[in-house]
Amino acid sequence: MIGGLVEAPPRRGTLLVVDDEEGVRASFRVLLKDEFTVLEAEDGEQALEVLRRHEVDVVMLDQRLPGEPGIDVLSRIKALDPLVVVVLARWLAATWRWRGSIGSSRRSRRRRPPSW
Per-domain residue ranges for the chain? Predict the structure, then answer.
């Protein structure tokens, strides 16, 4: 309590993950659930609907979405909320698949010195 006012608890950040692959959305949900409120959308239209209903801080937006490409969705998101931070990526799904395959091919690669 400050000067007779009750302090509200700090607001958790809200992250919107926009990706058509459930595995990618589930990974973000599991990894970040303790620190953020994680919202999800499968495509651009769902993302815009979520943004109309919720206060979102950061949008993780996949470039390769069914229907409307992520770059087009980006301009619509910014028109709706110019202050939201948007991370546009072509690699969301590929990154999770790559992480799972690291151990299987590590021994077969030789390390090469950098080619500066």
Answer: 64-91
Task: Specify whether the CB–CB gap between 77 and 48 falls below 8 A.
Answer: yes
Residue 1 Cα to chain centre, angstroms: 35
d(C-alpha 97, C-alpha 14), whole Å: 25
8 Å CB contact between 29 and 52: no
Report the 10 Å Cβ neighbour count for 53.
9
Residue 49 has pLDDT above 90, yes or no: yes
Per-residue model confidence (pLDDT) at position 107? 43
Distance between CA atoms of residues 16 and 47, nearest Å: 8
The 10 Å CB-count burial string (b at 16+, else e) for 85-110 is ebebbeebbeebeeeeeeeeeeeeee
Which are the contacts of 15, defined by CB distance < 8 A and separation ≥ 6?
Answer: 28, 32, 36, 37, 38, 39, 56, 57, 58, 59, 60
* Model confidence, pTM: 0.71
